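All the exercises in this workshop are built on plain-text protein records. A learned vocabulary of local backbone shapes supplies the integers on the structure line. Once this layout is familiar, the rest of the handout is easier to follow. An example says more than a description, so a record of this kind follows:
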Amino acid sequence: MKKRLLGTTAALLAGLAAGSAHAAFSDGKIKIGVLNDQSSLYADLSGQGSVLAARMAVEDFGGSVNGTPVEIIFADHQNKADIGSNIARQWYDVEQVDAIADVPNSAVALAVSQITRDKNKVHLNSGAGTSSLTGDKCSPNTVHWTYDTWALANGTGSAVVENGGDSWFFLTADYAFGHALEGDTAAVVKEKGGQVLGEVRHPLNTADFSSFLLQAQGSGAKVIGLANAGSDTTNAIKQASEFGIVQAGQTLAGLLVFITDVHGLGLQTAQGLTLTEAFYWDLNDETRAWSKRFAEQNGGKQPTMVQAGVYGAVLHYLKALAETGDDSDGVKVVEQMKAMPTEDPLFGKGEVRVDGRTTHPMYLLQVKTPEESKGPWDYYNVVSTIPADQAFRPLDKGGCELVK
């Protein structure tokens, strides 16, 4: 009888332990919100493709963490910091969202990062470029996964200067991301002995670049640096081609160009562009296999590096939750993400540094000519691989409060 009671007690204790472990995940589920541009200039490079990437990460992890199901929701921040902030607060306070992923548009990302810190949740940023997210605006609750303005500047900017492009004029999107990209690239140009002849700022989502391009042309700079992204970049490149700027001898440097931009421009227009990316679908067998699955569910479109970054960040987050068994303390979850090496089929091996910066190789790429391309989405030649320990800003140079 005593033995039976002991056995019953052990079973009850085991059941209570399992129940408490399950209850550690808020609301009996893990909820991740993908917050991005669903309808405007960044929708193609993030949008529903990022939602798909997050769902693929959950699927590849097994659909649950320690028996707790994972749910993906999404919303459109419309590239407005106030709208993004309101959604983030609603998600955290009412809908029990545990982590917010993607968030292209640096102004929105900086606002969401601060709210996430205030609420002690987790921000998995893939889409925003500003290096301030791991610099003077770093947070113990934020992980910046894919790329940043420092990495772009030191990839594309360095390559262009080293190839003779030693005088620059910047055409810059007039918000946090554009300013950061211009500033980081200008610093590289000057460090390598080049000079910056001027800049002009344009509103986000501009349709007519004629006056801005004429200023750039009139500067006499060898290089016109496009410190913008999405349709702003593609519109500027198309109109520069129409004005004969490149034919007249000036070079366009697309400082943030996505594969969807090249697809939209076509190889005839985009050929020869030098750019820096964190991911390309055709890098190796693993990236090709994953991208094939993605494209089959994405209308045939290959993933951008932002969408790939959402996959990598969400997958690593789920791995960390499996270790902590608890999503109630965002700082502790991010600390676990930093304690574990990163590894996935898209970015390979890396780490999340103390400042929240995820490290992995970056790639200097050049757009192929139409004759070089062997098929759909075969757009890039890999010029060089930038090792993970060189691709991102040194820890002691960012001004992050978490770096001791």
In short: The longest helix spans residues 2-23. The radius of gyration is 22 Å. Confidence is low (pLDDT under 50) at residues 1-23. The CA atoms of residues 57 and 315 lie 5 Å apart.
